[in-house]
Amino acid sequence: MPLTRRGFLAGALALPALSTVAACAGTVVQPGDLSRLRMMVPASPGGGWDTTARTLQRVIQQTGIARNVQVFNVEGAGGTIGIGQLAREDDDALLMMMGLVMVGAIDTNDSTTRLDDVTPIAQLIAETELIVVPADSPYDTLEDFVAGWAADPRGTPIAGGSAGGTDQILAGLLAQAAGIDPIEVNYIAYSGGGESLAALLGSQVAAGISGTADYGPQVQSGDLKGIAVSTAERSNQVPDVPTIIESGFDVEVTNWRGLMARPGMSDGARDDLIALVTDAHDTDEWAEALDANGWLDTFQTGDEYGEFLAEEETRVRQVLTEIGLIQG
């Protein structure tokens, strides 16, 4: 299948570090006690996984679904440090946030722990990717940018997140659609949206790719120019920015996020976690969070989610092979 197939659902390389939080003073959290839930974010605070986890934490606590939800961060290697830790856990009341970046990072980092080593619980949301250029860029449209990019791929640096993640996959897909060899793409991976944003604001790169939550405010303020969004329809976060498809390139990508749990748990324990997350998803508070963040509701659970993950692994591996990040 060509890299440009429409509807590809998309979803790294950071120095490993470990951050933990202690249980609340005087409280002993028993394994499997869903009234006191833990949620691991296998990335640094402030990013997309962290924002989604803390939004879910707030909804669960505000609606009384669980009395206490602890969110903690385990940073490193596109989430592969975190999934490795999850695979060694025995607590049925632990969830881990993840998404496409981890799917790609498992291959680019040669992780010994893979998605089928842990338990799928639910896919929560998907986010639109936004392609931007600096405010002083000569390019005002995606068509203009692609013309310049095709003339000098190596001299057109593109900023984005972790190697092998959503942003680089989108760059590779767009390159192929434009007739550019994906291996020639000069992609600069940053560990977070803040670093890539600084490079864009300083005109150190020709373009940037990230979620609408990262770049949307700067597009709205005029500090960056939005030239395309990656979904089939325009984003309500940046409604004046056309889609890639509108701009003449048959590429559609969404950056999804979901939840996993430890391996080897009983069907009953898994079903309890699915029920808890479903209850949170069905609240008005969660619907309001989706709207406020411009997230797409892509909710699915259990075996259906597991089948989706298996398909994503195959698709992502194909793309990463074709853009030269992993060996086929």
From TrEMBL:
Q: Which UniProt keywords apply?
A: Signal
The answer to whether keyword Ribosomal protein applies is no
Q: Which residues form the signal peptide?
A: 1-25
Source taxon at top rank: Bacteria
Signal among keywords:
yes
Give the protein family. Answer: Belongs to the UPF0065 (bug) family.
- The name this protein carries in UniProt is Putative tricarboxylic transport membrane protein
